[in-house]
Amino acid sequence: MGAGPRAGAEALWRLAAGFLGFVLPARCGPCGTKISGHGYLCPSCWGGLVPLAAPFCSQCALPFEFEAGPEDICGNCLMDPPAFDWARAAVLYDGLGRSLVLSLKHGGRVAAVPVMSQMICGSVMGMTETGLRPDLIIPVPLHPTRLAKRRFNQSQLLAADLARHLALPLDSFSLKKIRSTESQGGLNRAERFRNVATSFAIDPRRKSSLAGKTIVLVDDVMTTGATASACAKVLKKAGARSVGVVTFARVGRPVAG
Ligand SMILES: [Zn+2]
Ligand SMILES: [Zn+2]
């Protein structure tokens, strides 16, 4: 797994900070305020994260504006169900939640990964309380061309850290992105589903390792669930028993169309 020059510099900084932590005060990643410990965020920035709280769609985690039961699903999931069985997200894709995602993806701020993955971990723990017993953690892959350009896959970093927290196996090889897709920005819901529909595949040599498995798919952000659904579709076709999705952030409003 590669990392951009800035990500590499941050990794080196983190390593150095491990040695120098007793001399140098830690600083909040987004605002630079001195903090005690190495939690990445100061109390004020913590306050800028909006946790995704009930009520939300039990299948795609879209927040509801009205009271709903824990099993209720949104209109989109009712009319046109995604291929995954459930989804959870730690925070809303808004304010600091949005800027953490963007600064990781486009700014290579990998120092945010531990705090983001710890929050994702909370979502998985919430599901294990309802009886979920995951077998495998799988990141949403990038197309090799995009990976070569960005040098790292943010979902892979989050998934690897999550797998470590949960002491579960990480599988970064079975699910592949085989077709490069145009950006989902500016597309309506139907177009987003069409855009990524056939862009993922399972490595045929690894198909047997997925059969009968309860899989947790990891991504940084969910908008309509189109990408996660395309991934879940091929994982289920390969024999996965169930596929759930956890993301750090969730766009809080439905995308039209
Ligand atoms: Zn701060
Ligand atoms: Zn839904």
Number of domains: 1
Total number of helices: 9
Question: Strands across the major sheet, in which order?
Answer: 3-8-7-4
Distance between the termini: 37 Å
> Which residues sit in consecutive blocks of at least 5 with pLDDT less than 50?
none
At CATH level 2, the architecture is 3-Layer(aba) Sandwich
Instruction: Give the beta-strand count.
Output: 8
Any idea what the radius of gyration is?
18 Å
Output the structural class: alpha/beta
* Strand residue percentage: 15-25%
Q: How helix-rich are the residues, as a percent range? A: 25-40%
Small ligands present:
zinc ion
Describe, in plain words, how this protein is organized in 3D.
- This protein has 257 residues and is of the alpha/beta class.
- The protein has one domain (50-250): 3-Layer(aba) Sandwich (Rossmann fold), CATH 3.40.50.2020.
- The chain contains nine helices and eight strands.
- The protein has helices at 5-20, 43-46, 75-79, 95-105, 113-128, 144-150, 154-166, 189-196, 226-237, and strands at 26-27, 34-35, 86-92, 136-139, 175-177, 200-202, 214-222, 242-250.
- A four-stranded parallel sheet has the order 3-8-7-4. Strands 1-2 form a two-stranded antiparallel sheet. Strands 5-6 form a two-stranded antiparallel sheet.
- Helix 5 packs across helix 7 (154-166).
- The longest helix has 16 residues, at 5-20.
- It is globular and about 50 Å long.
- The N and C termini lie far apart (37 Å).
